[in-house]
Model the fold of this input.
Amino acid sequence: MEVIKSRTELIKTRQEIKDKLGFVPTMGALHAGHLSLGKLAREHADKVIYSIFVNPTQFAQGEDLDKYPRDIEGDLHKLEGLADYVYLPNLQDIYPNGSKVNRKAGAAAQGLESLSRPHFFDGVVTVVGILFEQIRPDIAVFGEKDFQQLMALKETFSPPNRGGKGGVQIISAPIMREPDGLAMSSRNAYLSAEERQIAPKLYEILSSNLSIAEMKDELIKHSFRIDYVETRWNRLFAAVWLGSTRLIDNVEIGA
Done:
């Protein structure tokens, strides 16, 4: 596994890659869900590259940019035997002219997450666009846990929105869950021991046959503070707070 620590190194390495290249962008603090994305990328490509970069443009003032979990050494250990390359850009590599948004997300980004985090999707499509331009992958894999993000990225980068430049095939990967049903997330590390016992109730309630109003009542009974519970794309989406941790999840309706 080759660790690429700068844009300059990436340019040199990318020139040497002739095989079909699969890409998994991450912000680090890797868990089994992230690793499953690489395994899926391997099914569609000859080589797999991960990036680890905590992107400032998708965090608003007061969000958890500074405390977002970071463990580069641990992440690299987890990627041994799975990734062929790991790109570790610094801020200057990605934003040489300052951390500015240079893309706007489309209709898929409206509502749901954008109501609470209006900055988020513009930051995501900006950094993914930059990484696509630098890495030039053939395919990229994103998880369905962030389903609205997946739809926004497909809308932005899939035909006919790729500008005739070859484009990147975006592949979706199913949500990976803990044995108790909690969707895997780097932010689960923020949960206290007591909150961790409660958190799986989110998936349990979303998977029930209750009405949305009844689901909201059940979530409140279990100490969740509700941001939203809504349907779109034949899925049920929820964002809730448990203590100081914001959790999101979604389930396919009728699955």
Q: What stands out?
A: The chain has a mean pLDDT of 95. The beta strands are 2-4, 21-26, 47-52, 85-87, 139-143, 169-173, 225-232, 235-242, 245-252. The chain has two domains: 2-173, 186-249. The radius of gyration is 18 Å.
